[in-house]
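Please go through the protein record below and see whether the fold suits the sequence. Record follows.
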Amino acid sequence: TRHQLILTGLYANEENTIHLKATLTDGTILTHTLKLQTPSLPNHAISPNVTQPKNSNEQTALYLISDDYYHYLVDELGEIRWIQMASSGSVTPLSTGTLLTYSDPLFYYYHQSLIERNYLGQTLKKLYIPGAGHHSLVETESGDYLINSSDKSLG
C-alpha cells in the first residue's frame, strides 16, 4: 500500500527534521526520519516583530494575518509557519476549517467572486457576487456568508 502525507507548518529556509512512525496491523512498528530543506519566503513577505512573546509552557498559537499578496499563519514567536498567495487582503476562517476570500478583481479593491480554499491552496468552491464585494467577510451561525456588495440593480 502506498500513502501520501502532506506536511504544513515547517520553518522556511531551514532543514526540517521529520520523524515518521507507522504501526502495521500485526503490531510491527516502522520508523523513518527524513530531512526536508524548505525554500526561503518571498522577498515581499511580511516580517512579524513580536514585542511580548508568550511563556514557553503555553500551547502554541497561530495567528492568521493577511496582506494584498499573501495569507500567513504566524506563531507566537513571529515565525511564518504557512503562506499562501492571496487574491485580496480579506480572509475569513470558516467553521469547516477552510478559508473564505475574494477573487477576480473588478476594479481597485472590489472583487466579483468569493472562493473557499483549504490550507493547501486548493479551491473548493467559487461563488459569484452580484455587483462586487469589498472587505467584511463574515460567516453566520447558520453557515451563510455576509459580505458588503456594491450591487445597485436591486434598488
Q: What stands out?
A: Strands lie at 15-23, 29-37, 62-66, 70-75, 80-85, 91-93, 99-107, 110-117, 123-139, 145-149. The mean pLDDT is 82. The two ends are 59 Å apart (CA to CA).
